[in-house]
């Protein structure tokens, strides 16, 4: 049976700001191709997505590809604090419910489900972000959402890959999205994890 990895996420999964190799998910595909792994790898990152948007598209995209491994890298956008409304983009309570729904959907295809946690940001550049001056990414919020991902993943016996402290300020292009160096660090973390767990 062919192995198929589907990687669901937002702009950092899609590859934003990696001008060398189009992001960590694409770097994983290039690695698999270079080593002649018999694995299909699909980058299903959509810029701006929260768990709300991912839930709407998950079934169709997974059904079309029939994944044997699913990687979720979602949550950063859920944690956005909308200053004018004094609330987060997706409440922590709703985020937890959405994660559970994603897992329930994913388990219809595979039991190999991996969650990447949220990553820190360079706060002076993300409070607010230049392209949305009402949007604030804070490490405090990201830490809360990261912890929720870990809790829900462990409860459902899914893999959790901690990346919160992986990147330093110099690994970001704009404070939020990793630069090429940052994407390389995430790729290596994911690649080493897949190899260590013998999932390739």
Report what the structure shows.
The strands form two sheets. The protein has a five-stranded parallel beta sheet with strand order 2-1-3-6-8, sandwiched between helices. A three-stranded antiparallel beta sheet has the order 5-4-7, with no helix packed on it. It has helices at 11-14, 24-34, 51-65, 92-106, 139-155, 180-196, and strands at 3-9, 39-45, 69-73, 81-82, 87-88, 113-116, 135-136, 159-161. Helix 2 crosses helix 6, helix 3 runs parallel beside helix 4 and helix 4 packs parallel to helix 5 (139-155). A hairpin with a 4-residue loop joins strand 4 (81-82) and strand 5 (87-88). Helix content is 40%, strand content 16%. It is α/β, with parallel strands linked by helices. The protein contains six helices and eight strands, in the order E-H-H-E-H-E-E-E-H-E-E-H-E-H. It has a single domain (3-196), classed as 3-Layer(aba) Sandwich (Rossmann fold).
Main beta sheet, described? 5 strands, parallel
Number of helices in the DSSP assignment: 6
| Poorly predicted regions | none
End-to-end C-alpha gap: 12 Å
Number of domains: 1
**How does CATH name the architecture?**
3-Layer(aba) Sandwich
CATH topology: Rossmann fold
Query: Largest sheet, order of strands side by side?
Result: 2-1-3-6-8
In what range is the share of β-strand residues?
15-25%
Seen as an oligomer or otherwise, the chain set is single chain
Mean pLDDT: 97
User: Helices and strands: which structural class?
Assistant: alpha/beta
Any idea what the radius of gyration is? 16 Å
Query: How much helix is in the residues?
Result: 25-40%
């Amino acid at each position: 049976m062919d192995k198929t990895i589907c990687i669901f996420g937002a702009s950092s999964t899609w590859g934003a700001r990696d001008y060398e190799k189009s992001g960590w998910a694409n770097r994983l595909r290039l690695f698999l191709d270079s080593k002649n792994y018999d694995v299909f790898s699909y980058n299903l990152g959509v810029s701006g997505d929260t768990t709300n948007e991912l839930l709407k598209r998950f079934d169709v995209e997974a059904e079309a590809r029939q994944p044997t491994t699913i990687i979720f890298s979602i949550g950063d956008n859920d944690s956005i604090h909308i200053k004018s409304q004094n609330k987060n983009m997706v409440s922590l309570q709703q985020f937890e419910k959405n994660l559970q729904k994603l897992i329930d959907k994913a388990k219809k295809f595979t039991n190999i489900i991996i969650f990447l946690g949220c990553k820190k940001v360079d706060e002076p550049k993300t409070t607010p972000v230049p392209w949305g001056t009402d949007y604030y990414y804070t490490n405090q919020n990201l830490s809360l959402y990261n912890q929720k991902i870990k809790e829900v993943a462990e409860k459902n016996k899914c893999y959790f890959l901690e990346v919160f402290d992986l990147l330093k300020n110099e690994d970001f292009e704009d404070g939020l999205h990793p630069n090429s160096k940052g994407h390389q660090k995430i790729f290596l973390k994911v690649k080493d994890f897949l190899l260590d767990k013998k999932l390739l």
